[in-house]
Amino acid sequence: MTLTIRKVMTTDPVSVLSTTTARELVERFEREDVSAYPVVRTDGTLAGIVTKLDLLRALRSAVPGGEPDVDRLAALRAGDLMRPGVVTLEPDQSLEAAIDLMVETRLRSLPVVARPRGSAPVLIGMVSQGDVLRALIARSLSLEEHDGAAAPGRTQHHTVARSAGRYPTARRAPGALL
After folding, report:
1. Is the pLDDT assigned to residue 9 strictly greater than 90?
2. Are 91 and 125 in contact, with CB atoms under 8 Å apart?
3. Which of 20, 38, 149, 162 is the most exposed place for a label (fewest CB within 10 A)?
4. What angle do CA 104, 119, 10 make, to 5 degrees?
5. Is 27 exposed, middle or buried (0-12, 13-18, 19+ CB in 10 A)?
6. E strand intervals along the chain
7. Which one, of 123, 130, 129, 135, lies nearest residue 14 by Cα?
C-alpha cells in the first residue's frame, strides 16, 4: 500500500499573512516549533513561504563585515521576506515524492495544496521531514507486528521496546534503514 501525503501531512497548518511583521515572525519562530511559515492571502491561497533563513538574509549588512541591519528588518513584513515560487505537494502524491523533493531541494517542510480548476493553489496542509520519518517508522512497526517477529537486523529488544512506546535508535544494525 502506497502512503500518500494526505495520510501524513499536518492539516490546518499555522501560516502567516503577507502583512505579518518581521518582529511577529521572530516571536512566532521562537514560540512555535516550525522551520517555515506558508504565507497565505486572505482567501487561503498560497502566496509564498518564509523561513528563519529569510530573516537572517534580511539582517545581513550591505557592507561586508558590517553590523546586522536590525532597523531594516523592523520595517519588513512577511510579504517582503517570503520566497514566492514555492515548491509544493498535492495530497494524493506518494510519500516517495515528498522524500525526493525534500532531498533534492534540502527543504525541511513543504506546503500541501489543493488546486481548484482555474484557481490559485489553496494551502491545506504541511508535510515535514519529521512527518515523513514518523510515517515510515509507523509503517515499519506495523509490518513487524503483522509478521510477529523482529525485522532482519533487529533484536527482539527492539520489538519489545517499540510495543512499549519507545523507539530505540542507538542499537541499529549496520546498514539498517529503519
Report:
1. yes
2. yes
3. 149
4. 50
5. exposed
6. 10-11, 16-17, 36-40, 46-51, 109-114, 122-128
7. 123
Tell me whether residue 166 is exposed, middle or buried, using C-beta atoms within 10 angstroms of its C-beta: 0 to 12, 13 to 18, 19 or more: exposed
pLDDT at 46: 95
The mean pLDDT of the chain is: 80
Residues 6+ apart with CB under 8 A from 122: 43, 44, 45, 46, 113, 114, 115, 116
How far is C-alpha 2 from the geometric centre of its chain's CA atoms?
20
How large is the average pLDDT for residues 116-145? 87
CA separation, residue 101 to residues 96, 127, 128, 140, 149 (Å): 9, 11, 11, 22, 33
**Residue given cell 490559485 in the structure block:** 120
Superfamily of domain 13-93+113-126, CATH level 4: CBS-domain (3.10.580.10)
Instruction: Give the closest residue to 111 by CA, choosing from 76, 137, 140, 85.
Output: 85
Cα-based distances in Å from 165 to 133, 160, 161? 16, 9, 7
**pTM of the predicted protein model:** 0.73
Q: What is the largest CA-CA distance in the chain?
A: 63
Query: Which amino acid is residue 158, in one-letter code?
Result: H
